[in-house]
Every structure is written in C-alpha cells, then in structure tokens.
Write a structure and sequence with these properties.
2 copies of one chain form a homodimer.
Chain A (H helix, E strand, L loop, with lengths): L4 H20 L2 H8 L3 H8 L2 H24 L5 H18 L3 H12 L1 H8 L8 H12 L8 H17 L1 H8 L3 H23 L2
Helix pairs in contact in A: 1-2, 1-4, 1-6, 4-5, 5-9, 5-11, 9-11
The first copy, chain A, binds a DNA duplex through α3.
Chain lengths: 200, 200
DNA sequence: GTCTATAGGTAGATAGAC
DNA sequence: GTCTATCTACCTATAGAC
C-alpha cells in the first residue's frame, strides 16, 4: 500500500499548520516531515497559501460532514444531544489541536475567507436541530429555550475545554493524561448538565 | 495629559498582536500605529519577543485580576454566578478579540511559556468558587455537580461564542451588529441555563 | 530619546539539471 | 517527478548621526 507524494505532503502540512498556525508554519518543516524536497511543495501546490487552503478545506469538510450527520439524524431530541456530545468529544479527544486551529485561522484570514468557505457545498447546517428544538418547545416537552443559544451551548461545552486547554491545565496543575481523563468524565457531565437545564 | 512613548508602543502592540497573533505581527505596523520610528521599538523593548511578553503579561494580569475579584467575592453562589457572567460578558463584548489571542498564543508558545505564566503572582484562582460549590452540594442546596466542570461550563458558555465568532456568524449569516445583540441577549440565557442545570 | 541607514538572516518561490 | 541551487523580498535587529 503506497502513499502518493501529494498525500504525504497533505499529511505533513496538516500536522504543521495545525500545530503552528499559518503564519508560523514553515515550508521547510513541512517538506522535512513529508520526507521530500521543498521544491516539490511548490510543484504540487504552487504556493504556501494554496497548500494551506487545501489542508483547511479538507479539515473543514470532514468537520461539517460529521456535524451534519448528527444534526440531521432521525432521533428524539435528548438522544440526538447525547449522540452529538459523544461523537464530538470522540473527535476532539482524538484531535485536540483541531478546534483551535480552525478558529484561529478563521479569525485571522478575514471576512473574505469565511465567505469563500460558506459558499462551499459542504458546510455545517444546524437547521434540522434548531427546528427540532423549536418543536419540542412548542409542544411544551422542554423549557422555553432559544434554539440558537442551545446549539451554541452544546458546542461551547464540548469544544472550549480543548481550545483553552493550556490555560486550564496550567491552572489545575495536571499532566496530559489526567486532563484527557477529565475530558472523558466530562461527557456524562455535559449530558446531565444540558438535560437538567432544558427539561420542562 | 500626555501619553508616554512607551505607553503609545504598548497600546499599538496590543492592538496588532491581538489582531494578527505573534507570528504574523510586524514591527513596522506597530511602529506606524504608534506614530513612531521602528528603531524606537527596540530601544524600549529590545526585541519583538520581549515586547510581546510585555503585552501578554499586561493582558493576562488584567484578566486574572477581574476573574479573581468575582471568584473571591463574598456572595451567595447564584448571585456570584450571575455577577461572573455579567462582568465576563461585559469584558468580552468590549474586547471580542482578546480570548482568541490569549488562547492562541498559549497553544503555540509551548509549555515553558505556560509554566512561566503560572509562576507569576497574579494568576486565575478558581479555588474560592470551587470550595463554595462543594459546600452547596454537600448542603444539598444544588445538584451534585462536579465543581471543576461547573466552573469550566461557566467559562465555556461565555467565552466560546466570541472565540468561534467568525464561524457562527458565517453560518448564521448575520452582520456584526446583530451578532453583538445576540451576545447581549445571551447573558440572561446563560444565567437561566446554568440555574436550571444545577438547581436541586 | 528619536531618527536614518543598513546589516544579517530567513523564508517563499523559481530555474534548470537529471 | 524529484532534486539542487539560487533569486528576491522581507523582517528583525543594530549602528550611528543628531
């Protein structure tokens, strides 16, 4: 089973860009990590910017697909929330650096980049979930929460501890392993927290 | 009322560093924004790294002081949580770029930098709040939540929407003004959410 | 303290041999 | 397709005049 050069470059680039961010990433380091020559990066992707876009789109699409799969699933609300937290936490535990990377670059690349992203076919679509929440509220089965904020809350509770991890880990004075265990125990904590917060 | 050159530099540096991040920030841009010559930056702060540290420490200390003031206040738990959300959201609405800046640089500067930060006298201290939560749980006045996670939840619910703002704003297709209004309405939403989540 | 000029180093990108 | 060598631009930092 062979890995194409293009694949090797993308893998190395993803690693370096996610760790260092666009500005601090070095083409030389990407080439070294991919085990190829620096010139080849330009042969395949022309410029650092284009290579970055390729990496970012790949990550973004994968993220969107996973999110939308859960958001659009045919499940009762509570089960869907539980499925979301479980699946999202899995993703984050496996790739702890991903959320800060995405958010970071979106903050810096400016409005044009965001617009370009949002014109793609694959993008996060929270509408099915928002609609479902509205129906539950109208039926009086959950408290009268604002659906937009509830979705925001779900995402915040899962993602923020990974994004702010260096700060929390520094304050709590725990090592990497302990912090990841805390994140494991956090799943159930989040599910219970949301459940109690919205029950009628 | 005169502003010293050092002050002018720090103000300009804070602006540029928070917007662009360390790696993408340019000494020339800082000098321009401060209305002084590039050489003066080095006269006052020797290097880009030292200037960055000066800015970061200033921001970090201010953040810690505010947080600790609320965490250590002499208030019943629910009032303290409400005070925290109010004050924290105020800070974030006034400086929307601050959290991503801090988190971003903490992610990239590495463990040594975090250790250095945590050895400072001024740093966030959640212990008073955590102790208070434990007491309320033991007294049966709130649900049996994990205090660490509850504090994490409070911070997550407030800060994340500002950090991930470009993404959300892109998805929700709203302009800056509308998004800030959403954040205003979010205060009460968060307070209600937490209140319901932990009430006995 | 503040400026101009420039040194010194580095990074992205290209040219051209193989 | 892959490599080596090099160009060009830019950026931090310093030297030195005022």
């Amino acid at each position: 089973m062979e890995i194409s050069t293009e694949e090797k470059i993308l893998n190395a680039a993803r690693e370096v860009f996610t760790q260092k961010g666009f500005a601090a990433a070095r083409m030389q380091e990407i080439a070294d990590k991919a085990g190829i020559n620096k010139g080849l990066l330009h042969y395949y992707f022309r410029s650092k910017n284009k290579l970055f876009h390729a990496v970012f789109y790949e990550v973004f699409d994968q993220f969107s697909l996973r999110i939308n799969e859960v958001f659009g699933a045919d499940l009762p609300l509570f089960e869907k929330i539980e499925a979301f937290v479980d699946q999202y936490m899995d993703t984050l535990i496996a790739n702890p650096a991903l959320p800060s990377f995405m958010i970071n670059e979106l903050n810096q690349k400016g409005e044009a980049f965001v617009k370009e992203l949002m014109s793609r076919k694959t993008k996060p679509n929270p509408l099915p979930l928002i609609g479902q929440i509205q129906m539950e509220v109208q039926a009086g089965r959950i408290r009268a929460v604002n659906p937009f904020h509830l979705v925001l809350n779900m995402l915040s509770l899962c993602a923020f501890p990974f994004i702010a991890r260096p700060l929390f880990q520094g304050i709590a004075q725990v090592d990497d392993e302990t912090y990841l265990k805390l994140m494991e125990s956090r799943r159930q904590e989040i599910i219970d927290f949301i459940h109690n917060a919205i029950r009628a």
